[in-house]
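Hi,

I'm pasting everything inline rather than attaching a file, because the server keeps stripping attachments. The sequence lines come first, and each chain or strand is labelled.
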Amino acid sequence: MTSAPLLSATGLDKAYGPTPALAGADFALRAGEVVAVMGPSGSGKSTLLHCLAGIVRPDAGTITYDGRELTALSDGARSALRRTDFGFVFQFGQLVPELTCVENVALPLRLNGEKRKAAEARAVEWLARLEVDDLAGKRPGEISGGQGQRVAVARALVTAPRVIFADEPTGALDSLNGERVMRLLTDASRDTGAAVVLVTHEARVAAYSDREVVVRDGSVRDTEWAA
Amino acid sequence: MSLGTWARDLTLGARFAVTGGRSGLLRTLLTATGVGFGVALLLLAASFPNMLFQREVREAVRAVDGSEQVTSPRPDSFLHLGRPTVYRDQAISGLLLQPEGDAPPVPPGASSFPETGGMLVSPALGELLDSPEGALLKKRLPYEVVGTIGPAGLIGPAELRYVAHVDFLNADNLDGRGTRYGWSVPEEPMNAFLILLVVVACVVLLLPVLVFVATAVRFGGEQRDRRLAALRLIGADTAMTRRIAAGESLASALLGLLVGLGLFAAARQFAGTFTIWDVNAYPADVVPMTGLAVLVLAVVPVASVVVTLFALRGVVIEPLGVVRTSTPRRRRLWWRLLLLAAGTAFLVPLIGDVQISQTSIDSLSVAAGTTLVLVGLTTLLPWLVEAGVKRLRGGPVAWQLAVRRLQLSSGTAARAVSGIVVAATGAIALQMLFQAMETQFTQYSGEDTSRAQIALGFDAGNADDARGKIDRVRRTEGVSGVIGVVESHVWRPGPLKQGEEFSPMVALRVGDCASLGEFATLPSCTDGDVFVFLAHGKQGNPDDAFVTKAVRPGAMVALSDPHPHPSSPKGAKGAPAQWRVPADARTVDSRPDPTGMYEYGVLATPKALAGAVLDDPRAQVMVRLDPAVPDAADLVRNTADAIDPTAWVRTLKDTERDAAFSSVRTGILVGSTLTMLLVAASLLVATLEQLRDRKRLLSSLVAFGTRRSTLSWSVLWQTAVPIVLGLVLAVAGGLGLGVVLLKMGGQQVQDWWGFLPVVGIGLGLIATVTLLSMPVLWRLMRADGLRTE
Amino acid sequence: MSIGHTLLGLLESGPRHGYDLKRAFDEKFGQDRPLHYGQVYSTMSRLLKNGLVVVDGIEAGGGPERKRYAITEAGITDVAQWLATPEKPEPYLQSTLYTKVVLALLTGRGAAEILDTQRAEHLRLMRELTRRKRDGDLADQLICDHALFHLEADLRWLELTAARLDALAEEIRR
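And the predicted assembly:
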């Protein structure tokens, strides 16, 4: 607990309609660490991730990223931050079905205004790193779920983000593919120094993290930081 | 396959259509509404021939029977004169009656014969006369309203008509003498060009409706496919799912038929309140032709089943989901071109074949050719979209997303847009035809409204009387200038020559120099001058020798017919008065008068003919109106009627015809706009459906920072690319078709840019569809889509 | 499993006689292995000696089973410490965990905390196994996976039990 956290949140409240998803949740993430967010379904894990990533604005509480207060930023500024500093991997349905794998991976770079050629060259490098470079020209509909998740991981890493948000990245995969995706994800993030917020309900997946926090009834039990 | 299985599966499908949960019901209602609108339109179109026929029947029934010649007054005979007029650009039909006995037949639609000075009016005219707007008209029709004309005497409920009992009809001004109403007049021959227009309009406006009906039965197809997959899971085979799908569409289509019948029944109630192309009908007259109606009622359900089965062709419904054959066969070009070629083959031989005066054209060939061309263009679109999109690469992210999407499923987009192609192509071709017709008609009449706007003619007892009438017109409020001449004739005096049946005769016009200058090019003119003016055979006029036979400078002419027809009441007046044409009278060239006619004969200033007694003089007046005075035209018409209720009145800027033209133009635009709106609706539904299907994807795109504008632009491009391609095709096809149709009637293209409004509408559609899908897009872009339930 | 802590925990809700303790223990945790009176006697005397319980009273007739025991402050602290200490992750530890969860519920403590503590401990081991698996050969991977799956199964069972007991406790409270 020597360094200041890269991303921290205090007292987050968020309700969808009458149901509270988060109630006074606290969280902290140091640069480069992999933190698993665990908890039963409906406990608010995903909502916590959405708030931390600036996708959803919490009803109350503050989120600080790299010295900036995320909650005070405009929608556009938060979008820009997500493009440059964050990467995302979801359970499924995140690849654009019409685009080829390499185009999918290049998409975040292109959203940042990078030229198509350069973007796709870097995308191919990342596909190779995730051992799916042979799929570059294929469309998501033509590859397996495990391959798709690896493409998604490549897409999350291609912008060299400082934080990767992974929401049940192995949820739709079998054990073997799940292990492989997790290994590639954590290896790559450690290599690049990216921190990972890993939402999962599986202990075996969480075991790839450096530490875990548990979300229960909308509040976070941080086993290490609370101590 | 037994009939029972079919029936079972179709019924099952029909049950799904109504019990498929909220989304299933929505889909059914959407389809039914779409089909309903289509059916209603088709039924209305099927009623059109009947409507026109009923109009003719009504017109014939109320006309005075002219087949019977009544030569002398009888107790039941009456004199009649048709007396139409125009009031503020509205045409009013009128009939003046003068009974000769005490038992004249009651005019159709009336309950009794009005007393002298009494007038029966149609409800619409009655309303107009009672309203402040009718005040001026009231002055023109100085009769007392004593009753109403019922439907039996009217063509449509909105017709403006009056029937008046008058006492001033005589042998000189009547249309005829009759004893009864109703005869079968021959069908008024319709101008060939007009038929061409009608045929093309029918094809053009109805094809998109069919396209729309075909699109409508596919609404929500993807959801339905998923439901079918679930059926496969519980044991249905492929054939069975197809039958169930067909049953589902059938149910929606049948519901659509009911909706359509309802809409039709409602719409025909309004038939009387709209006047399109001068047509306005009683609801009872709006009855679809039995054959066509049966065809519509049969074709729509059958088409729905066929379209569904056709749409499922490229789809394999597996128990665990729907597989679209990922690489569909490449679209072939040849048969699409073949259709176009076949259509052209029908049309091209007709080039130059249609004469304006002809009243019958080979409408079957025109309809077949036009249909084939339009269908060919429509089928060309999917190929064009596929071929066009295939080459598109690069560009910004929004563009890339849209293009890639189109590359994967160009068929869906093309199908939705195909209606636009038909509607736009047709509208452009119609527009061109119409413009040619409009220009041609105004050129034909040659009326020059910059010189005068209304022409009037009055019978007069003598020259002074005629001049008085001219002055009365001149003094009317709103008249800024008058071209007025007293018109009569001069004859060659002396005995008839060999082979002559009557004495050579030409017209004589007496008026001031300014007025005379409107008939011929005068080098100079002072009072006392006389001119002989020649038309040189223009406009089918007799050649100049005919004129010089009757009149030459220095020659003596008779001022009345030296050899009147024995039966003429003006016969035997003794030797006619004579007048010498001055020897210094100049011979000049005729020029078109404001009505566009080349006249010929003698022009004389008043001093040259002072004191001469003219035979049967008429006052011919052409009036220039003061545009600053509202209702100037109606004030003049009122004066004319006040001078003589049988006066000849003609509006030069033929407003009646202009109104008809602009209503056609509006009709074309409204029709194609409506069709395009239908198309836009189906396009919107497709876009929304697609967006909803990709809720998760959209949310995840937002998660990694995709701008809202990027996705909005992508939706715009996705809509715009096929529509723009469609419009390009439509402009090319429409111009081509228009040129061929014009050449048929030997016409020239008047305005190559007439397609711009149609293109404008198309571009408007892109904007509309994009804008309307924005709220849904933005709602879906919220992070809710990421939540896993 | 610690019989002493279990008996202490049972005393938290109020003083009990020796035979009461045995009956309660057998009912809740004994299943196929009921306690002997001797076990109760020796355990209780050890607890007495350590000052974790006191004798609250003796019924006429004497005998160790006739003594009424009550928990002391030190005893309560001891129970709390015990509950808060995660068990060493190993296969088939469910009986101890189960005992802890039930006791936590009985003594008004949250089962979730026990679960979280235990999960942290399990994960610590699982992380180690995962690391070993990544660096090791196929044999290492297979062995580690075996352990990982078992540990995961433990946690899942625990989570399920806790969820069920929570529901049960709510029902009892109602």
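Chain A has a mean pLDDT of 87.

If the labels don't parse on your end, tell me and I'll reformat.
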